[in-house]
Write a structure and sequence with these properties.
Blueprint lengths: L2 H37 L6 H4 L1 E5 L16 H12 L7 E5 L4 H5 L11 H7 L10
């Protein structure tokens, strides 16, 4: 095999491997985000509606007039962001409603163990490199 052919083969392997890595990370992210959203307690649906997914800088807003009892709208928005994600850039799911931390730490009887911590535990730490 000539050196040029070997270089082309390595370049092709790198591109294919990076694409596979992105696909795996997208699947992990969507499973984690789906778990968090569906574990969110529901009264009016405001909390589920305010999960914001973003790439790079964490989502900073919230909308007190948004409601999504099923979580399908929030999951669809997250899926759209996840599908556009590229390797080596942070992706996050954030809920900035003022009562999000109390809900995560057991304030709701519907989610006494939280949503984020429980989802990460269920995933076996895979989404955090084993660190929960």
């Amino acid at each position: 095999m000539a050196l040029g052919s070997f270089t082309i083969a390595l370049d092709s392997f790198q591109i294919k491997t990076e694409r596979q890595l992105v696909n795996v990370c997208q699947k992990i992210a969507m499973e984690a985000f789906k778990g968090v959203i569906l574990k969110s307690p529901v009264d009016t649906g405001r909390f589920r509606a305010n999960w914001g997914c973003s790439v790079g800088t964490p989502y900073a807003g919230y909308d007190v007039n948004a409601f999504d009892k099923s979580g399908s709208g929030s999951m669809a928005k997250a899926m759209q962001v996840v599908n556009g994600w590229k390797a080596r850039i942070n992706i996050s799911l954030v809920n900035n409603l003022p009562y999000s931390l109390p809900l995560e730490y057991g304030h709701s009887k519907q989610a006494p163990s939280g949503m984020v911590r429980l989802t990460l535990t269920e995933m076996g730490g895979i989404a955090t490199g084993g660190q929960i």
